[in-house]
Specification:
Blueprint lengths: L3 H10 L3 H17 L3 H28 L20 H8 L2 H5 L3 E4 L6 H14 L4 E5 H13 L3 H9 L3 E7 L8 H12 L4 E6 L14 H12 L3 E4 L29
Organism: Chondrus crispus
Keywords: ATP-binding, Nucleotide-binding
GO biological process, one term: DNA replication
Length: 262
């Protein structure tokens, strides 16, 4: 008697569809290998756990809102020989997450700041950590829209609780009121509580320029960001540099005339 048709609705009721997806194959495997019942059950439970972990991983990927799928394995360290690769690998292991420490990444456009930030975010997701990626402009726009809807405090609280927030392109556009206050509020709420990665084209000494209207607010925000932060400088050529076209070979439009043609 085949018990699988009878088990199917029960497994669905128990929300064990991971077992349902593999039970026939596992049953054949158990019969062929004369497997003990406990080993057979362990395989089924393992399938269910793997399915749930994959679902969680996929959900975190969607919530992260990454621009593209950038990984540390794809990062070209050879272009940036001065970058501390040992530190990068240490950060990828996730210690900064438990420290609730910021990571600040600066460098010229095209040196891989966003790639590195998203790659570290991917590492965090693999470790079961929720991540949110936004540009600085997108983030302040989200908070401003929440203010207009009367949901500012609720949105601020939700963003402050995200275990890892990646803020890309800080300082690319000046922060005008109320965006400067919104960013300050968010950084203050996350301070020493959750980890934040920030990328910027500005040198560290120039970050106050992002707050043209309020230098006091700039100082208060940046003090919190810089405290216990891991600072990375990416100094190299842009990988977006255009490729030079090969030089055209000179060609003769006219044939050389042979002596006997004169």
């Amino acid at each position: 008697m085949n018990p699988i048709p009878e088990l199917t609705p029960q497994l669905k009721q128990l929300r064990l569809s991971g077992m349902l997806d593999s039970i026939e194959a596992r049953n054949r495997q158990a019969i062929e290998a004369k497997m003990p019942y406990t080993d057979f059950l362990a395989l089924l439970i393992g399938d269910e756990v793997a399915r749930r972990e994959q679902r969680k991983f996929s959900l975190r990927q969607r919530r992260a809102n990454f621009r593209t799928t950038k990984t540390l394995e794809q990062f070209d360290f050879d272009r940036l020989p001065q970058l501390n690769r040992t530190l990068i690998n240490d950060l990828a292991a996730g210690r900064y997450l438990s420290e609730a420490a910021p990571i600040l990444i600066v460098g010229p456009s095209g040196t891989g700041k966003s790639h590195l930030a998203q790659a570290l975010g991917q590492c965090a997701i693999r470790q079961g950590v929720d991540v949110v990626f936004n540009t600085c402009t997108q983030l302040t726009t989200i908070l401003n829209a929440a203010r207009a809807n009367g949901a500012y405090q609720r949105k601020l609280t939700a963003l402050a609780r995200v275990p890892l927030m990646i803020i890309d392109d800080f300082g690319l556009k000046p922060l005008r009121p109320p965006a400067d206050e919104d960013l300050h509020d968010l950084i203050a709420e996350r301070y020493e509580s959750t980890a934040t990665i920030v990328t910027s084209n500005l040198d560290f000494s120039e970050w106050d320029q992002a707050f043209p209207a309020n230098k006091l607010l700039a100082s208060a925000t940046l003090d919190r960001l810089r405290h216990n932060a891991y600072c990375l400088t990416l100094d190299g050529q842009s990988y977006r540099s255009p490729k030079l076209a090969p030089k055209a070979q000179p060609t003769s439009l006219a044939k050389k005339r042979k002596p006997d043609e004169d």
